[in-house]
Amino acid sequence: MTDTVQPQIRIRGLYKIFGSRAEEMLQYVRKGMSKAELLSKYGHVVGLRNINIDMMPGKTTVIMGLSGSGKSTLIRHLNRLIDPTAGEIMVDGEDVMQKGPAALREMRQTRMSMVFQKFALLPHRTVLDNAAMPLEVRDVDEKERHDEARKWLARVGLDGFEDSYPHQLSGGMQQRVGIARALTSNSDIMLMDEAFSALDPLIRTDMQNLLLELQAELHKTIVFITHDLDEALKLADHLVILKDGEIVQQGEPQRILMHPEDPYIVDFIADINRARVLRARTVMTDAIPDAGTVAGDVDSEATLESVISLAEGRTDKSFRVMQDDQPVGTLSMQDVVLALVPTDAASEERQTAAQ
């Protein structure tokens, strides 16, 4: 019998109300008063309402939403840069709200690192000293902290830039320093608040790929904030979508794409390129075909776009889906086509086909 993996971060019943009488306002918010009504009647703002999330160790949880949805407010609760009005935040089984100043500093320095949107590098310090800063504040010997910082700077592609200053680097290179700094701290948890949103599109894609590469190697618990759906779908193991401080839907990204539970989500995903983000494993059936009855094999993580190319546009083909060199299902091109239809219409098509 194996032990069940426990969340590294566990959030339950989290509320944040901004205003001088926040605790008094909590009763109204719990009874369902809207964000607009609370602001109009009492001049208080609902930042977060009844947030419940499990963030698993070694996985990337992406919190996404439009401006004002509460995503940055939420991430700042995890290391108590913001205190909640009510609720529970557990990290490795410990109640963050019960930590005194010394324990809180220790947690921020050793167990959580943060990568910021605006890089937050010290302009008068070299790249090496910026990357080594988490160990400097822990009074680690200079040689030891510089050796560790050099290792991670090289890992993010900045070998040879140790003696440069931030103003001498491009935006993408500066953010690489920010990631190296976070890795130098050797913390299990990385908080990334709109870390790539200030970058140009091509550089942003490079940084996303770098993060995926590092995560495959290091298995950090990453909490990543973004307003960009394509970025969220690319990075997330677990996706949480916020609107007006509330969770609209959360779960595995592919499942949310295929089974949106709210009209807001349907509208949110309406314009994405479904062929580029949906995977073979999401659309396949569990039946295992004989190799001779299909047009070939595709990987379970292959995008539908690549499968369409492999099928040369023909809808009469099927493929065997492989995972770790083992067959796990069948993917027919008819199911691929249905999966590309916008959600409501796709649902109607499947209901008709089943009749």
What does it look like?
By secondary structure, the protein is an alpha/beta fold. It is 41% helix and 22% strand. It is built from 16 helices and 13 strands. The strands form three sheets. Strands 6-7-8-3-9-10 form a six-stranded mixed sheet, with helices on both faces. Helix 14 (304-311) links the parallel strand 11 and strand 12. Helix 5 packs parallel to helix 7. The longest helix has 18 residues, at 201-218. The protein is globular, with a radius of gyration of 23 Å. The two termini are 43 Å apart.
Distance between the termini: 43 Å
Largest sheet composition: 6 strands, mixed
Please give the number of β-strands.
Answer: 13
Number of helices: 16
Please summarize what this structure is.
The protein has 355 residues and is an alpha/beta fold.
